[in-house]
Amino acid sequence: MFTFNLRNARKQKRMTQRQVADRMGVSQAYVSMLEGNKRRVPSRQLAKVVGAYGLSASALPFHGSKNWDRVDGDKVATELGTLGYPGFAYMRVGRPKWNPAELLLAALTKDDLETRVTEGLPWLAYTHSDMDWDWVVREAKNNNVTNRLGFVVTLARELAERKGDTATVARLRAVEARLQPCVLLHPRTLCREHMTQAERRWLSTRSTPQARQWNVLSDLSLEHLAHAT
User: Fold this and answer.
1) HSE value, Cβ hemisphere, 13 Å, CA-based, for 222
2) CA–CA separation, 221 vs 16, rounded Å?
3) pLDDT, tens digit, for every residue of 85-120?
4) Cβ 153 vs Cβ 101: under 8 Å
5) Partners of 112 in the beta sheet?
6) Model confidence over 134-187: pLDDT tens digits?
7) I want to staple 191 with a disulfide (CB 3.0 to 4.6 A). Which of 113, 146, 159, 161 is the partner?
8) What 3 state SS string does 139-181 have?
9) At what angle do helices 133-142 and 166-179 cross, to 10 degrees?
10) Confidence of residue 56 (pLDDT cuts 50, 70, 90)
11) Chain-centre distance for alpha carbon 126
12) Helix (DSSP H) and strand (DSSP E) numbers for the chain
């Protein structure tokens, strides 16, 4: 359910109802009813409303975990592109349909994703650091992906440090601190569960310090995130 305060959002952007109506291709009266909670925002209009009001994609409602099965690697890549990830800029089509927080969790629950897709996840956590981290941390615990999430957040925090974004660094450090006591003892991969035993042995000696911190088998580092930096 969409519960964002549209009237406040519009005023913060210093827009009139007429300007919003023109962006959405609807009447001013319709916008007034949406803002006055006299009409519910139809699901087919959600992305358009978010765009018209200039809201962050983090304002999008969640689809629910029952729909995560249909989020495959191609879907994650498309949504990353639509959200502005440079690595998939060529896939940018229309408006985002998935809340970045839910997209991140849905991706981290996948047994196997292409490396080029997982490389976009730290960018997602950094760029949309306004996401609902309370929900993200809770769902990561429920889905046993705290290790993967912690590793991604650490890379996102390092990205923020490189960019000199102190506010985001502080926000992501707080998330790391919440996840650290929840590290699972069983080593996890970063969405590459079907790698061979030989690959696992190789990564066990070559995983980065950041990956080992989160008990993740991965050599992914900030230097690999060319599209994010």
Assistant:
1) 15
2) 45
3) 999 988 887 778 899 999 999 999 999 999 999 999
4) no
5) 192
6) 999 999 999 999 999 999 999 999 999 999 999 999 999 999 999 999 999 989
7) 113
8) HHHHCCCHHHHHHHHHHHHHHHHHCCCHHHHHHHHHHHHHHHH
9) 30
10) confident
11) 9
12) 13, 2
Distance, CA of 102 to CA of 61 (rounded, Å): 9
Whether pTM > 0.85 for this model: the answer is no
The CA distance from 229 to 185, in Å, is: 31
Q: How far is CA 51 from CA 46, 58, 213, in A?
A: 9, 12, 38
The tokens for 142 are: 């429920």
Distance between CA atoms of residues 184 and 52, nearest Å:
42
Beta bridge partners of 188: 216
Tokens 């974004």 appear where? Answer: 165
The amino acid present at 143, given as its one-letter code, is N
For tokens 């030989």, the residue is 198
Question: In the 8-state DSSP scheme, what is residue 225?
Answer: -
